[in-house]
Specification:
The complex is a heterodimer. Chain A is mostly beta strands. Chain B is about 0% helix and about 55% strand. Chain B has no helices and eleven strands. In chain B, the strands form two sheets. In chain B, strands 2, 4, 5, 9, 10 and 11 form a six-stranded mixed β-sheet that branches. In chain B, strands 1-3-8-7-6 form a five-stranded antiparallel β-sheet, with no helix packed on it. Classes of the chains: A mainly beta, B mainly beta.
Chain lengths: ~120, ~120
């Protein structure tokens, strides 16, 4: 069974378009994350949600908007795509770091976004 | 920045040898985690060491943490071809808001095990 899944796996689109990436986890975790990995392999956190509430919001252009319909899903919508948005986007989840934490994060397989 | 910086950026060794990767960071942390990424795949958690721990073992992995030097190392003993991957350290802090944990990854060390 897939723990953290993302769709689509590959996404090729033109500049200016709007696209979404979906993420689902079946681990029962409360917290989900979006990361961006650039061509040099740097992996940077973008957002984190806990029980549908935004708790981490890094310096990300407001063209990126995360949406969490429930705690098992965290989708990423990107408006007006730019060439620099080309990267691999990873979703992850973890338990909340309350008593007994911290906890490891479980990553999805990634979505390779190519903007032409 | 608390970003983990791995050293070396690339490491190539023979199968059976030990591989050591180092990590440095700049701010106070709650824990430090190591992850592996196979080419074209997501990251897989390897080991977590808390800030009050100095060493931790898991199978062929040994992690050390020196908070006074703000550094960590990952040792893989008796390396195998299947260990070929990129390895990332991720210093972590627990933010006060709802216990949010923030991990900040670096660029990773690309490890190649030659048969």
């Amino acid at each position: 069974d897939t723990a953290v899944s993302q769709t689509p796996k590959y996404l090729v689109t033109q500049m200016g378009n709007d696209k979404s990436i979906k993420c689902e986890q079946n681990l029962g975790h409360d917290t989900m994350y979006w990361y961006k990995q650039d061509s040099k392999k740097f992996l940077k956190i973008m957002f984190s949600y806990n029980n549908k509430e935004l708790i981490i919001n890094e310096t990300v252009p407001n063209r990126f908007s995360p949406k969490s319909p429930d705690k098992a899903h965290l989708n990423l919508h990107i408006n007006s795509l730019e060439l620099g948005d080309s990267a691999v986007y990873f979703c992850a989840s973890s338990q909340v770091s309350r008593a007994g934490g911290p906890y490891e994060q479980y990553f999805g397989p990634g979505t390779r976004l190519t903007v032409t | 920045s608390q970003q983990g910086e791995e050293d070396p950026q690339a490491l190539s060794i023979q199968e059976g040898e030990n591989a050591t990767m180092n990590c440095s960071y700049k701010t106070s942390i709650n824990n430090l985690q190591w992850y592996r990424q196979n080419s074209g795949r997501g990251l897989v958690h390897l080991i977590l060491i808390r800030s009050n721990e100095r060493e931790k073992h898991s199978g062929r992995l040994r992690v050390t943490l020196d908070t006074s030097k703000k550094s960590s190392s990952l040792l893989i003993t008796a390396s195998r071809a299947a260990d070929t991957a990129s390895y990332f350290c991720a210093p972590g802090i627990i933010a006060p808001i709802q216990g949010a944990q923030k991990l900040v990854f670096g660029q990773g060390t690309r490890l190649t095990i030659n048969p």
